[in-house]
Amino acid sequence: MRIPTTEIDRLAERIVDALLRQGYVRPRVEKSILVEKVAERIRKTFEEEAALEEEAERIVAATARNAPGIDQNRMIQLVKKKLAEERGFPL
Questions:
Q1: Rounded to the nearest 5 degrees, what angle is found at the Cα of 40, between the Cα atoms of 37 and 43?
Q2: What is the 3-state secondary structure (H, E, C) of the chain?
Q3: Predicted TM-score (pTM) of this structure
Q4: Range 42-50 contact pairs with CB under 8 angstroms and sequence separation of 24 or more
Q5: What is the largest CA-CA distance in the chain?
Q6: Is the CB of residue 54 less than 8 Å from the CB of residue 20?
Q7: How far apart are CA 28 and CA 8, in angstroms?
Q8: Cα Rg, the chain, nearest whole Å
Q9: How far apart, in Å, are the Cα atoms of 17 and each of 39, 60, 90?
Q10: HSE-up of 49 (CA within 13 Å, CB side)?
Q11: What is the reported pLDDT for 1?
Q12: Exposed/middle/buried for residue 21 (C-beta within 10 Å: 0-12, 13-18, 19+)
């Protein structure tokens, strides 16, 4: 899934605002720096998930020839889940 940069930036700002408002963080840097760091982490997480999905698709494509009639979308999700578990990546 591709999320526009503006949406990620807006989400990051809302997260930082909520953390500040509720007193969960006491910033030692400007709010804008916090927002950028959160947005950067969100983008990186989406990139990592996309890479997991691509790897799962390659694995399923390589093995699907030996198992005709399987639901490839379901298999991709199962392989992706297994890869994520092995790598400690939360889905």
A1: 155
A2: CCCCHHHHHHHHHHHHHHHHHCCCCCCCCCHHHHHHHHHHHHHHHHHHHHHHHHHHHHHHHHHHCCCCCCCHHHHHHHHHHHHHHHHCCCC
A3: 0.79
A4: 42/8, 42/11, 42/12, 43/5, 43/8, 46/1, 46/3, 46/8, 48/89, 49/89, 49/91
A5: 57
A6: no
A7: 23
A8: 18
A9: 13, 42, 24
A10: 13
A11: 61
A12: exposed
Which residue type, as a one-letter code, is found at position 56?
Answer: A
Q: Which amino acid is at 34?
A: L
pLDDT in tens, 25-79: 999 999 999 999 999 999 999 999 999 999 999 999 888 777 777 888 999 999 9
